């Protein structure tokens, strides 16, 4: 993302928090800089994943700075990789304390281990922090039965179960993340990041602008 885009996202999230009073822990990816799966065949997968984790930390620093610059001065950046000069180490109880104190948390570095996606990190953090829902900001407005960017006949799925997502290999999140959220019974809402300002509608029970994934059949 460009710096104006970080700024826009920060302002939208701060307005949502102001309207709703919800507590948010945000897990950032690094796809705009580097993804481990984008490596060439001759590059070691573990090293490529390490580069990707560092990319998430770069995004985390930029997003935290945008929050602070827009008035959320107590926003905390926490990382699973030990970088004390740049961020707090992620400790579950410390992160929960920040949330209890109504601080925004930006989580970066994935799970700190190669081989795990940002999606898996989201599912694990959500379980550890007792989150009520995972909000997955995407580049499309929900989950489709096939890629809507490639197939004009793609149909949007408004509500599906974890089992359906896993059995049909839906790629909105990786299968490990779906399985982890199913185990923790934490629903997932997938939506277009351009609809970020609509998130307060969720508290009214309106999930029409994305796809809800939960344990119900």
Word description of this protein:
With 217 residues, the chain is an alpha/beta fold. It folds into two domains: 1-131, Acetylglutamate kinase-like (Carbamate kinase), CATH 3.40.1160; 132-217, Acetylglutamate kinase-like (Carbamate kinase). The chain has helices spanning 3-20, 45-69, 92-100, 118-128, 162-167, 175-184, and strands at 25-27, 76-79, 88-89, 105-108, 134-138, 143-144, 156-157, 159-161, 188-192, 210-214. Strands 1-4-2-3 form a four-stranded parallel sheet, with helices on both faces. The longest helix is centred in the first third of the chain and has 25 residues, at 45-69.
Reported CATH architecture of the largest domain: 3-Layer(aba) Sandwich
Task: Return the domain count.
Answer: 2
Q: Name the average pLDDT.
A: 91
Fraction of helical residues: 25-40%
Tell how many strands the DSSP assignment holds.
10
The level 1 CATH classification of the largest domain is Alpha Beta
